[in-house]
Task: inverse folding
């Protein structure tokens, strides 16, 4: 099987996936050392979904994501240092240290978070698309959410409203088979999530989320459609997370065998294999990428370490446009 | 003289005409003309793009309002009543109130949300809530309660102009009330309380629909030679501590009227403010006149008994002044 | 202006805590006086001042810890001894406490308090408007502030809480109304503002002359005496023939400056008589008799402008008569010049008022609380008297003892007057 992409393209996709993987692995380590606190939701295993989607979207498109958003944030262009610093809680983090792992934001990169309420970002995406439509701007609002979000009322309300008002939203469901600890068929009545959107008149498609190239193509097609027609589209990205829901999860709800089985479909290993078999890349390329990424991560940590803590006196800033007191 | 609902409509017209970023959305604001006839005629004048009837999805249309504000528009979201707004509380509390903060100051959400509130029309327990205090509790949003026709007009203009999320509570009993409206006058800051009537013996502190009950009570009290000062809070978050404390520093006695239930109410908040900042001015304990701790009943006599009424206010004021 | 700084009281001392002041603003201090107590690692140490003068400013509050060398107080150096009014709570004013000094640069704008006192008042949340302090000319001292702060925080009556609204309490403090003395018409008998405003209040003190202030202090004291002390009176006529003869003889060999007057003789006699009548030489405090330490007769001195002071001559019963004479002369002249010492103002154990110079026969005096007796003398006048069955002219002085019937009775009073008579018949022994 060939990938039908150029070498540069392959290197780029691989680099992005490795960046995410190594950043997440390092985050585990730093969390254990208590540098990162609170909740930490890792993207390990889902890299292909995030990279494929983000690379298919334009820089100008709006992104709304969930609390498992490090991958999307990194590929969107938020520097690893700012992401790391944000997880540390430092003032040089991308959200000023105010948000943490679950709330990465970047206004200038149109990265609208970083949301911790399941399903809570969908209405925001609908609103952003509404604004663009009313202003006549040809922009896609891509909204990432998990299979758990499809249970929430806001999911259905958002599909309905986006279809009714014909809003340029690309709904991207990263179905990793679990809503925290509840398996798919235990939380949705119809486990074919793609059956939902057509009920609202929204075309929907399912993609192998472990295949970065497949994701990229599917998202590109769907995004272009949204951009042209200004009507919503839905994509299910079938993926799997290799690690727990978050750092405190004992994973009692799935067997180790199941996880191992899925690890055979590691998006990075698979892509590397295919790219090498297509003779697009060599081991040396991989080594170079790994070395670059290692350096990037090390610098990111240093950036975070030397960041300052926001002074407590400033605590009432950023509540209102002007401090009321 | 203008009706309260017409004053709101006038403000909506002004905003829709002058700022292309402004649009109105909510249930039945368009074809129906608004559940309280506030938006009557606006669909015809401004079209479906600017006056949008939404499906019944409070959470998502409030959230969409937030998203649209993030995207550069100035949406006015009408939630039919505070009773239905509960479905949207997640969007209010977890998005509108916190996105500026969570992002380290990167985002602004200039959304204005209007909702009808209060009881008194025998609409029973699910349609008669006064939950302004739930909203006023949350840092990151602002809350206004226009009690006069002028304020109904001015506060909406101010809310839409404000870069922060502003929630306006219109007491449903006020929509038909008539009062003077001057659209040319420079409005006072919406964030300040107003002394609606000066007095020297006791401060009657109220907001929204209760202000007029307080004024009626003040007239009755005058006949009994008790001089009551009526303070209209106007802004519920932020509360105008200065005016509240200033009034009680003159009268030395306070009765706070609030249509919400007493427990955890804004009346409690005002009492705490007085205890903190006017302790040495108090000549009598602060009295709170609130709705009885019951869901609002349907039967008229029961509803009347539950809600704060003029005679309860008068009695509380007399107790406060008479000291016994 | 001299500075009193935090001294180094040890090689390793870097800072000390000003535990308490022993002086108040306006007090006079002499070199060597203990001015404060300082808390160090090693404990509480008394520190002395090295200047003589008047305390003009206290810059550090009690309890403050400051580095060695920090200026704690400012002393305005004065060469001569000046009047140093004592710090006595206003409710216990006695004529001995009256300030009689004349001019002083008093700032009548705002509460009379130094910046340090104002700062302390601010820290303690004490409102100074309308407050009359116990310092010179009503100046507010740190003690006053402490007192007011305590009055605000703690119940006024020990053991008994007063139910009073915060506003009423505040205005009661401002107006000097004693909340213990007013009834409340609020819920549960709580005192409300109207109760305080309706209470009789002392006249707000505007800028009054020293004489007016003295008069009102006298008025307060005399009213109190009249209200509280059950007076009884014993009168006696004393033949002063022997005393006067002895005086003439003694004075003949003395220079004019050294000559004794009869007043000194009477004074000494009164003092000596008290040695055996201790119950007349006591004070009434908190419902009981407190015998006095020593006999210090207060001499009532009238002042120009109508004022009256009764400074004490300490240990009036001791020393030579000529000594007593000299001290008496000095005291009276200083009293008239407004140059009395604070100790003289507070320590009288009994008072002698002599109206002989005015030419009246007798006086029925009122006791100066908290004393328990007072002796009043009229003029010594030639009267027809019976001696050995013959009517002869004799110099007769009428003496009236006014005494507190809670402490003594007529019999004891009479015995005292008899003793006095006896002593005056043998003046050479005085």
Result:
């Amino acid at each position: 099987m060939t990938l039908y992409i150029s070498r540069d393209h392959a290197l780029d996709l691989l680099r992005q996936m490795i960046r995410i993987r190594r950043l997440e692995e390092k985050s585990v380590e730093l969390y254990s050392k208590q540098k990162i606190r609170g909740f930490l939701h890792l993207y390990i295993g889902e890299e292909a979904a995030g990279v494929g989607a983000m690379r298919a979207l334009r820089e100008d498109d709006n992104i709304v994501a969930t609390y498992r958003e490090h991958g999307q944030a990194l590929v969107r262009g938020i520097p690893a240092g700012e992401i790391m610093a944000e997880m540390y809680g430092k003032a040089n983090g991308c959200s000023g240290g105010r948000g943490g792992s679950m709330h990465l934001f970047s206004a200038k990169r149109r990265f609208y978070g970083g949301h911790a309420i399941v399903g809570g970002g969908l209405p925001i995406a609908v609103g952003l698309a509404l604004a663009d439509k009313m202003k006549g701007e040809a922009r896609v609002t891509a909204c990432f959410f998990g299979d758990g979000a499809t249970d929430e009322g806001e999911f259905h309300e958002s599909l309905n409203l986006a279809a009714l008002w014909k809003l340029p939203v690309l709904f991207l469901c990263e179905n990793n088979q679990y809503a925290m600890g509840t398996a798919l068929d235990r939380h949705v009545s119809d486990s074919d999530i793609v059956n939902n959107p057509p009920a609202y008149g929204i075309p929907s498609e399912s993609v192998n989320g472990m295949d970065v190239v497949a994701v990229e193509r599917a998202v590109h097609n769907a995004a272009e459609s949204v951009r042209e027609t200004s009507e919503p589209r839905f994509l299910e990205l079938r993926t799997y997370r290799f690690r727990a829901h978050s750092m405190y999860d004992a994973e009692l709800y799935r067997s180790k065998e199941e996880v191992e089985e899925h690890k055979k479909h590691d998006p990075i290993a698979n892509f590397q294999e295919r790219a090498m078999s297509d003779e697009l890349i060599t081991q040396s390329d991989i080594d170079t990428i790994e070395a670059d990424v290692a350096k990037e991560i090390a610098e990111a940590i240093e950036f975070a370490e030397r960041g300052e803590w926001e002074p407590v006196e400033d605590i009432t800033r950023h509540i209102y446009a002007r401090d009321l007191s | 003289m203008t009706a309260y609902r017409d004053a709101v409509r006038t403000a909506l017209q002004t905003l829709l005409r002058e700022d292309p970023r402004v649009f109105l959305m909510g249930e039945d604001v368009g074809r129906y003309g608004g559940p309280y006839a506030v938006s009557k005629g606006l669909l015809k004048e401004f079209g479906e793009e600017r006056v949008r009837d939404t499906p019944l999805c409070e959470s998502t249309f409030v959230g969409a309002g937030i998203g649209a504000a993030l995207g550069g528009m100035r949406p006015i979201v009408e939630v039919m009543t505070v009773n239905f707004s509960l479905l949207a509380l997640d969007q209010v509390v977890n998005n509108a109130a916190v996105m500026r903060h969570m992002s380290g100051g990167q985002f602004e959400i200039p959304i204005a949300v209007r909702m009808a509130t209060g009881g008194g029309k025998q609409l029973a327990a699910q349609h008669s809530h006064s939950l302004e205090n739930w909203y006023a509790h949350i840092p990151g949003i602002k809350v206004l309660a226009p009690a006069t026709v002028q304020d109904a007009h001015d506060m909406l203009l101010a809310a839409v102009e404000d870069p922060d999320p502003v929630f306006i509570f219109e007491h449903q009993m006020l929509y038909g009330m008539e009062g003077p409206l001057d659209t040319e006058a420079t409005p006072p800051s919406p964030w300040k309380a107003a002394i609606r009537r000066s007095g020297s013996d006791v401060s009657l502190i109220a907001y929204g629909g209760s202000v007029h009950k307080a004024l009626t009570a003040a007239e009755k009290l005058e006949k009994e030679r008790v001089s009551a000062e009526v303070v209209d809070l106007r802004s519920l978050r932020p509360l105008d501590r200065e005016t509240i404390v200033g009034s009680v520093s003159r009268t030395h006695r306070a009765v706070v009227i609030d249509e919400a239930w007493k427990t955890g109410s804004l009346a409690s908040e005002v009492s705490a403010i007085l205890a903190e900042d006017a302790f040495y001015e108090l000549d009598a304990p602060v009295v709170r006149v609130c709705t009885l701790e019951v869901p609002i009943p349907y039967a008229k006599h029961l509803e009347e008994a539950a809600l704060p009424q003029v005679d309860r206010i008068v009695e509380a004021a007399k107790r406060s002044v008479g000291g016994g | 202006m001299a500075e009193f700084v935090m001294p180094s009281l040890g090689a390793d001392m870097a800072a000390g805590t000003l535990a308490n002041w022993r002086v108040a603003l306006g007090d006079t201090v002499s070199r060597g006086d203990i001015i404060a107590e300082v808390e160090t690692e090693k404990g509480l140490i008394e520190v002395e001042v090295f200047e003589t003068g008047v305390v003009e400013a206290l810059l550090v509050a009690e309890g403050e810890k400051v580095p060695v060398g920090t200026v704690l107080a400012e002393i305005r150096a004065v060469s001569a001894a000046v009047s140093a009014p004592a710090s006595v709570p206003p409710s216990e004013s006695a004529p001995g406490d009256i300030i009689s000094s004349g001019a002083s640069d008093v700032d009548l704008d705002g509460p009379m308090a130094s910046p340090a006192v104002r700062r302390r008042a601010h820290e303690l949340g004490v409102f100074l408007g309308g407050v009359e302090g116990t310092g010179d000319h009503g100046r507010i001292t740190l003690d006053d502030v402490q007192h007011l702060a305590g009055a605000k925080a703690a119940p006024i009556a020990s053991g008994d809480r007063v139910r009073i609204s915060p506003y009423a309490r505040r205005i009661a403090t401002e107006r000097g109304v004693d909340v213990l003395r007013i009834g409340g018409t609020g819920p549960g008998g709580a005192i409300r503002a109207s109760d305080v405003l309706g209470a009789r209040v002392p006249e707000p003190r505007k800028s009054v002359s020293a004489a007016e202030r003295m008069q009102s202090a006298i008025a307060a004291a005399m009213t109190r005496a009249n209200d509280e002390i059950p007076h009884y009176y014993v009168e006696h006529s004393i033949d002063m023939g022997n005393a006067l003869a002895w005086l003439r003889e003694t004075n003949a060999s003395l220079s004019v400056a050294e000559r004794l007057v009869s007043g000194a003789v009477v004074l000494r006699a009164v003092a000596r008589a008290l040695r055996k009548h201790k119950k007349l030489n006591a004070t009434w405090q908190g419902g009981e008799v407190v015998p006095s330490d020593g006999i210090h007769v207060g001499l009532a001195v009238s002042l120009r402008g109508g004022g009256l002071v009764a400074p004490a001559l300490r240990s009036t019963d001791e020393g030579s008569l000529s000594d007593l004479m000299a001290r008496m002369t000095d005291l009276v002249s200083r009293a008239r010049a407004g140059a009395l010492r604070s100790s003289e103002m507070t320590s009288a154990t009994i008072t002698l008022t002599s109206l002989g110079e005015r030419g009246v026969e007798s006086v029925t005096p009122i006791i100066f609380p908290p004393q328990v007796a007072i002796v009043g003398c009229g003029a010594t006048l030639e009267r027809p008297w019976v001696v050995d069955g013959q009517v002869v002219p004799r110099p007769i002085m009428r003496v009236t003892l006014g005494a507190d019937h809670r402490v003594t009775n007529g019999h004891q009073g009479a015995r005292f007057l008899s003793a006095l008579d006896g002593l005056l018949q043998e003046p050479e022994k005085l």
